[in-house]
Amino acid sequence: MKDKVSILGVPFSKLTLAETTSLLDGHIAGGQGGLFHLITANPEITLASQSDGRLREIICSADLIVPDGIGIVMAARRQGDPIPERVTGYDLLLSLLAKGNERGWSFYFLGTDEVTSGQAVERIALRYPQVKIAGRHHGFFTADEEPGIIAGIQQAGPDILILAMGAPYSDKWLYKHKEALSGVKVVFGVGGSLDVISGKVKPAPAIWKKLNLEWAHRLLFAPVAKGQKSRWRRQSALPKFVYLTMIRK
């Protein structure tokens, strides 16, 4: 399809942030389309999908995959089928909150730690007063607590479910419970975006963003959640991603 480009077999959207927001706006307004699963994928996730069959299955079933990383944009450019811009989970979340403030959408936030979750939702409520907070829950729940959380989301029936449990865990969790959460209209993972909104992590300065070096800012300054691989180990996947995209060009 002309609005997508395949990178290592992953069909990335070529829509801009504004176009992606408009697409989701239409889906929510339609009300009859079922759950729309959007994935924000970077080079690390793309590379992981090459050896993780379950992740590959999830990616193939997603409704839209947006390029959350300058490496994806550069790979598309090398293939001669350019992507106009990155669409990061953080930017998409802010764009949908702004649109939701106009439309009166409801959001449910699942993930990060309890304190950060509470602080992020408080700030969102202040900044976007017309957004309805359908509910929230931290991401450090047990298997025994999970059914209650799913029941709570079902009862809340949010327009948008935001997952902040890290990638690819967020997408794997959603895929496992996709049928139970079919009443939700849009769902996607936002990585550490709630950490930034809460003030726990400082956003990258404008100059870092302009130079597409947000990944370097995170690498140097952002804390790593308990149980996650170090950022240095995760970034070591980038040279392999570049190599594979070049030899498969």
UniProtKB/TrEMBL annotation:
Keyword Ubl conjugation among record annotations:
no
List the NCBIfam families hit by this protein, alphabetically. Answer: wecG_tagA_cpsF
The protein in question is named N-acetylmannosaminyltransferase
GO function term, MF aspect, one: hexosyltransferase activity
Q: Which UniProt keywords apply?
A: Glycosyltransferase, Transferase
Top-rank taxon of the source lineage equals: Bacteria
InterPro entries, from UniProt? WecG_TagA_CpsF
Which Pfam families does the record cross-reference, listed alphabetically?
Glyco_tran_WecG
Organism of origin: Paenibacillus borealis
The record lists the membrane-crossing segments as none
